Amino acid sequence: MGNEKVLEMKNITKTFPGVKALDRVNFTLKKGEVHALLGENGAGKSTLMKVLNGIHKRDEGEIIVKGDPVEFENTKEAQNAGLAIIHQELELIPHLNVAENIYLGREDKKGIFINYKQLYQNTADVLEMLGVDIDPRAKIKDLNIGSQQMVEIAKAVSQNADILVMDEPTSSLTNQEIDILFELIERLKEQEISIVYISHRLEEVFEICDRVTVLRDGQFVGEVKTAETDEDQLINMMVGRTIEDRFPEMKFNPGEEILRVENLAVPDKIIDASFLLHKGEVLGIAGLMGSGRTELAKAVFGVYKEKTGDIYFKGKKLEINSPADALKNGISYLSEDRKDEGLVLGLPVADNISISVLTTMLKAHTFINAAAEKELAQKYIEDLSIKTPSEMQLVKNLSGGNQQKVVISKLLSTKPEVVILDEPTRGIDVGAKREIYNLMQELVDNGVGVILISSELPEVLNLSNRILVMHEQEIMGELDAADANQEEIMQLATGRRNQ
C-alpha cells in the first residue's frame, strides 16, 4: 500500500428534511488499501457513500478522485470514473446466468445478437483473475449468497473499478464464505484496488483493514491506523462512551411452561423437533447456517402448511396453520429478513408499527384512529430510541438498525406472550445491540417466553437460559447456558449428539 490518495472527501455536508445527515465529514482512501468506515446505525456511513456514488447530491464540500475534483450527477458517471458499490442487498437478476449479470448492458455482439462465446470467455477471464471458481453459465438463483457476492465483485472489476465500496459484505455469509471473501480482498489489494469496508463486525476490521474512519451522528469523529487501536477505543469513538460489557448480565426467573413442541416435522425442513419454553426465560437456538433454525421458528409460527406434530400453548393444544393463528394466540416472530418480510418500506414509521394491530385502532369500525396510531408510534420511538425526524418518516429512509427497531416495535405492539427473535442484531451496531439486549431482559421480566436464534455464539451463550443446538434439520441436544461453552455448541452443531 502506497501513500497515493485515490479519493478525498472534504467537509461533506448533506441535509434531508428534518435531519442533518452529514456535517462537514472528511474521508480519504489510499491506493491499494482497505479502509474501514465505522459508526452506529444512522451515523451517516451509507449517506456518505451515496454522495460519493452520485445517488445523493452534496450540499457542501469537495470530492477529489485520483487528483481531479468531481461532481457525479448519477451512478453511471461514478462508474465511469472507476467507482463501484457492492450493496448489502445484492443487485443481481436471479434468472440470468453469471456471465449475463456481469456484462449486463455491455455484452459483445455479432450484429444484433449477443456473442455468447466471447461473453463466457470474458467472464471466465475475470473470475480466474480473482481466483474465483464459478461456472459463467450458472444461474444466479442456483448460487449461494457467498458466490453471488463474488459475482458482484467480478462485475465491478470487469468495469475497471479501482475503488470498491463493500457495505456489510459478510452479514449473510458463513464462516467459510467469509474466509474466501477475505482471500479475494487480499488479491484485490495486490492489484492496487482500493476498498472502503463498512461493517459492524470489529474483529473483521482488525483482520483485513489498514485504517479506520469513524462517524457519529453525521460527523467525522476521527481516523486511526488499525494497528494502533483496539476494540474499546473504536467502540468509544462510535458511541461516545465506553460500553463496559458487550452483554448485560441476564436475570431469569423461569415460570410455568408456556410453549411445548412435540415431534414437530416439516418435509425437507425439520426432523422430529421437541422442546419446552417457560415464561420469563430466553431459549437460545444455535447451529450452522442451513441447520434448520429459521425453519423451526417458521414452523412454530404457522408458515408451513405441511407439518406433523403438536404445539401446546399454556398446556392447551393449538392448531397453528398460519401466522395469523400464531399472532391470535400471542406468538410473535421477528424475521431475519427485515426488508422482505418485516417492513413495508414505502410506508411511514407509524404505519409500520401499527400494521399488526390496526383492527384495535378503528373508529366506528371504519376509520383508523390517527391519534391512537401516533401515540403508539411515539411510545416505541421513545422506548427503543428510534432515530427518525418524526413518526411520519418513510421507513426506507431510516438506517438498517433503526429499521430493525421498527420491526421489533411492530412485533411488541401485539403484546405477545411468546417472542421468537431470528437474528435480531444482524447488521446493527454495538449501541443498538445493547438496546435490543435490554429489551429482551424487559420481556423476560414481564413473563414473556423468548426464543433467540443467532449465528453469534457469544450472543447465544450470554443471553440464553438454555440452548438448543441444531444440525441438519434436527435438534442435536440441549445445554444449560450457564455451564456451556463455544466448543460444546460447535461439537453439537457439527453433528456430535449430546448424550
UniProtKB/TrEMBL annotation:
Coiled coil stretches, renumbered: none
Predominant location: membrane
Gene3D superfamilies: P-loop containing nucleotide triphosphate hydrolases
SMART domains, alphabetized: AAA
Topology of this chain in the membrane: Peripheral membrane protein
Domain named ABC transporter: residues: 7-242, 253-497
GO molecular function: ATP binding; ATP hydrolysis activity
GO CC terms of this entry: plasma membrane
The keyword Ligase belongs to this UniProt entry's keyword annotation: no
GO BP term (any one): monosaccharide transmembrane transport
The UniProt record lists the keyword DNA-binding: no
Entry's localization field: Cell inner membrane; Cell membrane
Alphabetized Pfam families for the sequence: ABC_tran
Record's keyword terms, sorted: ATP-binding, Cell membrane, Membrane, Nucleotide-binding, Repeat, Sugar transport, Translocase, Transport
Listed name of the protein: Ribose transport system ATP-binding protein
